[in-house]
Write a structure and sequence with these properties.
four-stranded antiparallel β-sheet, Rieske Iron-sulfur Protein, 39% strand
Length: 148
């Protein structure tokens, strides 16, 4: 399976008008904008896929065959490789997790906290599924090009 989702969400420098149009089509929230990223059916159960959103690689992880999806940074902080979308999806005592394919550290999909080293935490994004589409919440600072 190709784990790179088809997306037309590129960095603003690639085509600012196109990116602004995609933001305008997304729905506003008090905290930012819900951005449509892909169809739920594009995500295989218990696997991940990488989406390029405003120049950021975000790993979308679908847990089970329902509509539970998590969004975490795709960059593995231990190897500095963009590989987490290719990790092994599982469960650790009821905690949904993904294990890096590089050095096998596991991350809580809900919080981004490394289960092997709690001092390390990945950025995460709120996710919702509406009408069979996966949307992530982008905060205003990210939309202005200020990545945390």
């Amino acid at each position: 399976m190709n784990d790179q989702l088809p997306t037309n969400h590129r960095p603003p420098s690639a085509d600012p008008e196109e990116f602004q149009d995609s933001i305008a089509q997304s729905s506003a929230d008090a905290e930012g904008f819900w951005l449509d990223v892909t169809a739920l059916d594009e995500l295989e159960p218990d696997t991940g896929a990488c989406a390029l959103v405003d120049g950021m690689q975000i790993a979308l992880i679908r847990v089970g065959d329902g509509d539970t999806v998590y969004a975490i940074a795709n960059k593995d902080p231990f190897s500095d490789a963009y590989v987490l979308s290719r990790g092994i999806v599982g469960d650790a005592g009821g905690v949904p997790k993904i294990a890096s394919p590089m050095f096998k550290q596991s991350f809580d999909l809900r919080t981004g906290i490394c289960l092997d080293d709690p001092s390390v935490q990945l950025p995460t994004w709120p996710v919702r599924v509406r009408g069979g589409r996966v949307e992530i919440l982008l905060q205003a600072a990210v939309l202005q090009g200020v990545a945390a």
